[in-house]
Amino acid sequence: MAKLHVKAAVIGAGMSGLVAARELRREGHQVVVFERSSDIGGTWLYDPSVESDPLGLDPGRDVVHSSMYRSLRLNLPRQLMGFSDYPFPKKGSGDSRNFQGHEEVLQFLRSFAEDFKLVELIRFRHEVVRVEQDVEGRRDWWAVEWRTRGGEEAAGVDVFEAVVVCNGKHTQPRIAEFPGRSTWSGEQLHSHNYRVPEPYKDKIVLIIGRGTSAGDIAKDILPHAREVHQASRETDNQVMEIRKLAGFFQHPMIACAEDDGKLVFQDGSSIYADVIIHCTGYSFHYPFLKTKGLLSVHNNRVGPLYKHVFPASLAPRLSFIGIPYLTYPTPLSELQSKWVAKVLSGELVLPSEEEMMSSVQEHYQRIEKLGWPKHHTHRLEIGKFTYEKWLVDQLGLPALGQWIEKMALIGLELLKFLQSSDENWRDTWDGEKWMQEEGFGKQIP
Ligand code: FAD
């Protein structure tokens, strides 16, 4: 059967949008990438400016896309940051640390876009404001309405046969709620609006959260602040690695905040603080999608979404890249993009809508069995790579399976190392050396 070549819109020119554009074009589709900002890179495009509402609650605020802080270093080694046929730069080029600064990723994505001639596909400063199916009664046509940002003002609507959403998942803050939060007298921000530690000089800062950003930001601020405290629902967490440092204290979650600046914790202890930084994650956010209820986001569940990519009743002409987390983002987006490109061309066929719906229901039941709350619907089981291997099987590309297997081994070794709670794990763990010792040689990717 002849391949179908569609006119596809990709929303976003971050890592996912770039690899989606490459894979779609490789499969023969015609691609237009809409990018709200004036450059590629998405999250990796460090922006020193912050939003007018530091908690990100005001829907009318002017959005700053990136959540990068100035000091950010990768939390994955370079071997896990590349594409299957386009590795992340080896040690010795640019930032020679094992876990480089964020600038290296931007440089990598720029080279990727140039080498695969993707820049010519991108309409910069074009914000997508509406995506809607059914143009002139045709269910396979999609209206993509856009307007320009900055420079000369323009707006328009273009029609596409497929839309691939790659708008990222780290821009819309989720904050912690507790009694007294909204009237608390101190300063509050979300980590999305944290950039540099200097404004916290001599302050008492409370960080809420237990993820990588919470740990990084605590360490960033500690040399400047009077004290850094951390509150979280669980104490068994990644911030353990800074527990022993002077001036750093851990607490259970906040029970209430009082008007005079006092914060009372669930164990009854309390502190007076100047600042609260919510390192409490992000929400999936698609303000431009108009699907008449066929797809929705509830408590961070985007659904119903078959295998985190295709909305069951709008597949295959609407798809999402990069939704799952607790995985390696670059390989994941590449595998999903290859799948979408081949489904759109007809080379791969999706199950029926009913079958997709029952797969989604099975997934929800599994989440429940695992005891995970609804907002973890798109979390993958760390270290298992079941989902990535499923994608590889769909694609029928065993070489990619070997790539994923090797990455899984590196990831397991890294995890062991992280659990040893070495304070300076990013400088101590030498993935390249370990791989050589284990006989990986130059095989990754
Ligand atoms: P983004 O990079 O967010 O790109 C989305 C793009 O869509 C942006 O360019 C945006 O401008 C555009 N866009 C959004 N809305 C619209 C619209 N309406 N119209 C047009 N364009 C739009 N990953 C790693 O692999 N290793 C790490 O060490 C790592 N560290 C991280 C640290 C932090 C603090 C954060 C926030 C993330 C980190 N990540 C890391 C994950 C990182 O987000 C992914 O690696 C990857 O960059 C995601 O790419 P994306 O293209 O899916 O999204």
* E-strand count: 23
Low-confidence stretches: 235-240
Radius of gyration: 22 Å
Q: Identify the bound ligands.
A: flavin-adenine dinucleotide
Describe the structure.
With 445 residues, the chain is an alpha/beta fold. The chain contains 9 helices and 23 strands. It has helices at 15-26, 102-115, 212-221, 329-345, 353-369, 386-395, 398-419, 425-428, 431-437; strands spanning 7-11, 30-34, 122-123, 126-135, 138-148, 155-160, 162-165, 172-173, 187-190, 204-208, 227-231, 248-251, 254-257, 262-265, 270-272, 275-278, 282-283, 289-290, 296-298, 301-303, 305-306, 310-311, 318-320. The strands form 7 sheets. A 5-stranded parallel sheet has the order 3-2-1-7-23, covered by helices on one side. A 5-stranded parallel sheet has the order 9-16-10-11-12, with helices on one face. Helix 4 runs parallel beside helix 6 (386-395) and helix 6 runs antiparallel to helix 7 (398-419). It is globular and about 70 Å long. 39% of the residues are buried. Mean pLDDT is 92; it is low at 235-240.
Short note summarizing the structure:
The protein is an alpha/beta fold and 445 residues long. It has helices at 15-26, 102-115, 212-221, 329-345, 353-369, 386-395, 398-419, 425-428, 431-437, and strands at residues 7-11, 30-34, 122-123, 126-135, 138-148, 155-160, 162-165, 172-173, 187-190, 204-208, 227-231, 248-251, 254-257, 262-265, 270-272, 275-278, 282-283, 289-290, 296-298, 301-303, 305-306, 310-311, 318-320.
